[in-house]
Design goal:
CATH class: Mainly Beta
Strand content: 35-45%
Helix content: under 10%
CATH architecture: Sandwich
Largest sheet: 14 strands, mixed
Structural class: mainly beta
Distance between the termini: 41 Å
Number of strands: 14
Number of domains: 1
Order of helices and strands: HEEEEEEEEEEEEEE
Shape: globular
């Protein structure tokens, strides 16, 4: 009961804040929209080998200036594909790299302090809350709901994280072994986020023409840290008003 009260208080605070400050949406610039194609559900393997991926167009995410950086770090080619089904969204990151800077061996760890890819999804733009999902090259995950009120953020883990709402995920290494600090030519991250993980922000599959906001990131730690993004931010990945628009086909 105490946990329920805490969660209720969080949502109440968010609703009050949203009502007081008004809508958080703003018009997207022309090159910040992405059309997501629909697919039947399929099994992921960390390689992106499913035939379904042939219908998705890859797009690049590129380096930007990160926190406390005077200039962006070194860039490696990084491509992303997205699909959606009646049950959730599929993501495929293809990251060129030379070393897997990854030592964290647990889920819900501080994965962003090492090599990682990240997805931020903001389905209901009337409220300053969104999903953040991170996956490391070693296949450890961090799924959290972010409450972002006036620039102050807090991450909340799923209360019940079971087969009903669990993310399916897998990774692979190219040109080397999938192990901590291994020399490689690249790595891939493939995962499926069910809509149930985003309840009550999302209550089912988006209809054709539905628009969400979101952004996609990578952090690479080699000789210098490189921060990658689809839509550029001022340094913090949590600048949600700079997210792009996702249009469900």
């Amino acid at each position: 009961m105490f946990k329920k009260c805490v969660l209720f208080s969080l949502w109440a605070a968010i609703l009050i804040s949203a009502a007081a400050t008004g809508t958080y949406t703003h018009a997207a610039i022309p090159d910040s929209s992405l059309v997501i194609k629909k697919t039947t559900d399929f099994k992921i393997d960390g390689q992106g080998s499913a035939a379904n991926w042939s219908t998705a167009k890859a797009f690049d995410i590129t380096v930007q200036t990160g926190p406390n950086q005077a200039a962006p770090g070194k860039q490696f080619p990084t491509k992303v594909k997205i699909l959606y089904s009646e049950k959730g969204l599929y993501f495929l990151f293809d990251c060129t790299d030379i070393k897997l800077t990854a030592t964290i061996m647990e889920d819900f760890g501080l994965l962003f302090k090492e090599d990682v890819v990240e997805v931020f999804l903001w389905p209901d733009t009337s409220l300053p809350i969104y999903l953040e999902y991170e996956l490391s090259p070693l296949d450890y995950e961090l799924p959290i709901i972010i409450a972002n009120i006036k620039g102050r953020t807090e991450g909340w883990k799923a209360w019940h994280y079971t087969d009903r709402n669990r993310v399916q995920h897998a990774t692979s290494a190219q040109g080397g072994q999938k192990k901590s600090m291994a020399a490689v030519e690249g790595w891939k991250a493939e995962f499926f986020i069910p809509y149930t993980l985003m309840s009550p922000m999302v209550t089912g599959a988006p209809k054709s023409g539905t628009k969400w906001r979101g952004n996609f990131y990578r952090i690479d730690y080699d000789s210098e840290t490189a921060y990658y993004s689809w839509q550029k931010t001022g340094g913090s990945f949590h600048e949600f008003n700079k997210f792009g628009t996702l249009i469900f086909e």
